[in-house]
Specification:
single chain; alpha+beta; five-stranded antiparallel β-sheet; rod-shaped
Length: 366
């Protein structure tokens, strides 16, 4: 027998097997043939595997959405992954916002209250962006990759073996149907032998499938460890963000005392009264205007005099050069004016240290 004859006979046998399975499957669906049922334990294992696959896919996809909300970016990363190439580095949203803030703060002037605050906020946003990038990388390695490996590896193997089991069952039931239809003793003997072989192959495949399916419990244990890693990565990320914002809040300081006093005074003015009383909304601006005028007058008086006054620092301030004095929120320094000085600045003294300070960072004390 040459190779061509062997291949032809093999193709014919395969075609016969396929036809036999198709007929058996169709008759089962029409209720015209009996079907060998799997034992309850194997059915439960199959159900557990399907459930694990379904929810693993959902959790994996939603985690990807959480880590990267931009669908176009996710598609791009998916394409690069399939091409086995590294995706180009992309500036994330916090980093981009941080850069805009730093640039605008530099444009407005680091020596101004608003410009300095923008720069500090921008630097914090950049740190949050870096923490976000670290979270994505850690989650991808420790959480998403194991879940994806299960879907694309273990479950594909289970699906392949389950399909083989289905084919072996169809072969077994087709052999049983053939045995029922056999009339002659010789035909019955051949059919009985065929049933024994099909039963043996079915039992062996059922055992292989069962062993694979029992590994789902180990998969759950592994995914639990991965879930703990993901939670720890999130905890680290949110703790970093909280600390960054806490530090930023300390750097920016609090609202000036005069503003807080105005708010309290406005609140007390808004007590219930008769309809002839002046509305609260009209009273508040006048109080604020008086307070602001008083503050401006105090600084104006100081600039026109040759004396010095104590002042409380409202916000942290980092000196831009050696002619300026760095400040810490809530500290008290001595301030005074010198001839020809810019209207927005005063000279500040702290012990032996001396330098220019912006008046927007100060509150004069009585």
């Amino acid at each position: 027998m040459n190779i061509m004859d062997f291949n032809v006979k093999k193709l014919a046998a395969d075609a016969g097997t396929f036809l036999s399975r198709a007929v058996q499957f169709t008759e089962e669906k029409l209720g015209q043939a009996e079907k060998t049922e799997l034992d309850a334990h194997l059915e439960n294992l199959l159900s557990k595997a399907e459930c694990t696959k379904l929810w693993t896919e959902k959790i994996m996809k939603q985690t990807e959405v959480l880590l990267q909300p931009n669908p176009n970016a996710r598609i791009e990363e998916f394409v690069y992954e399939k091409l086995d190439r590294k995706a180009p580095s992309r500036t994330n949203n916090p980093e981009l916002l941080g850069q805009y803030m730093v640039d605008s703060g530099s444009e407005f002037g680091p020596g101004t209250a608003y410009g300095n605050a923008l720069i500090k906020c921008g630097e914090t946003q950049k740190r949050i962006g870096a923490a976000d990038r670290e979270l994505i990388q850690t989650a991808a390695i420790n959480f998403l990759t194991p879940l994806r490996n299960f879907i694309e590896g273990d479950y594909k193997t289970i699906t392949k073996e389950r399909k083989l089991l289905q084919n072996k069952r169809l072969d077994l039931d087709a052999a049983k149907t053939k045995l029922k239809k056999a009339k002659a003793a010789e035909a019955r003997a051949a059919s009985e032998q065929e049933v024994r072989i099909a039963q043996s192959e079915f039992d062996r495949q059922a055992e292989i499938t069962r062993l694979l399916l029992e590994g789902i419990s180990s998969t759950h244990a592994h995914h639990l460890r991965c879930l703990n890693d993901f939670v720890e990565a999130q905890m680290t990320y949110y703790a970093q963000c909280y600390q960054y914002m806490l530090d930023l809040q300390k750097q920016l300081g609090s609202f000036p005392t005069t503003v807080l006093a105005n708010n309290n005074q406005s609140s007390s003015t808004c007590a219930p009264s008769s309809s002839t009383t002046t509305p609260c909304a009209s009273v508040t601006p006048s109080l604020s205007s008086v307070s602001n005028s008083a503050a401006s007058l105090s600084f104006g008086e100081l600039k026109s005099s040759s004396g010095s006054r104590k002042a409380r620092v409202l916000y942290d301030y980092d000196a831009a050069n050696s002619s300026e004095l760095s400040l810490l929120a809530d500290e008290v320094i001595m301030v005074y004016s010198i001839p020809g000085m810019d209207s927005d600045w005063l000279m500040g003294e702290r012990g032996n240290q001396k330098g220019k300070v912006p008046i927007t960072y100060l509150e004069l004390l009585n």
